[in-house]
Structures are given as structure tokens and as C-alpha cells.
Amino acid sequence: MKPDSLEKLLETNQKAQTFFGSLPDFVQGGIMLRSGEIKNENDLHKCAESIFHEFE
Questions:
Q1: What backbone torsions phi and psi does residue 13 show, to the nearest 5 degrees?
Q2: What is the distance between the alpha carbons of residues 25 and 39, in angstroms, rounded to a whole number?
Q3: CA 22 to CA 1: how far, in whole Å?
Q4: What's the CA gap between 53 and 20, in Å, rounded?
Q5: Strands (E), 1-56
Q6: Threshold 0.90, pTM exceeds
Q7: Residue 37: is it exposed, middle or buried by C-beta count within 10 angstroms (0-12/13-18/19+)?
């Protein structure tokens, strides 16, 4: 089974891994649900921002 884009990004990009790890659990969970949309570090940041806005 091929890993999804988010998993691959977190395995290969230390900055993305650190950023993801610093997020609250509810944001990490939301990102995991949208993992197929994450292709790069910029996508990760945009997704996290979107989830924060949903809970404002």
C-alpha cells in the first residue's frame, strides 16, 4: 500500500513534521482527514489555517 501524500511529506520534511507536531490535536485530526489534499508544506499550512477558521 502506497503511503498518502501527508505521510510522505511528514517522513521527508523535518519542518513540516515539526509544524504538524506543534498543532493542537483537533487540527492534526482534521489534517489527517484531508491528507489526500496535502502535497507539500504550503498545503499543510493552508489546511491547518482552514481548520482553525472552521472552529472560530
A1: -130, 105
A2: 21
A3: 28
A4: 17
A5: none
A6: no
A7: middle
Alpha-carbon distance of 31 to 22, in angstroms, equals: 13
Record the cell numbers describing residue 48, joined without a space: 491547518
Q: Which residue is associated with the grid cell 515539526?
A: 18
Residues 7, 39 contacting (CB under 8 angstroms):
no
- Spatial contact of 8 and 16, defined as CB atoms under 8 Å apart: no
What average pLDDT values come out for the chain (56 residues) when binned by 10 residues?
Answer: 76 97 97 93 97 90
Tallying the residues shown for the chain, one arrives at: 56
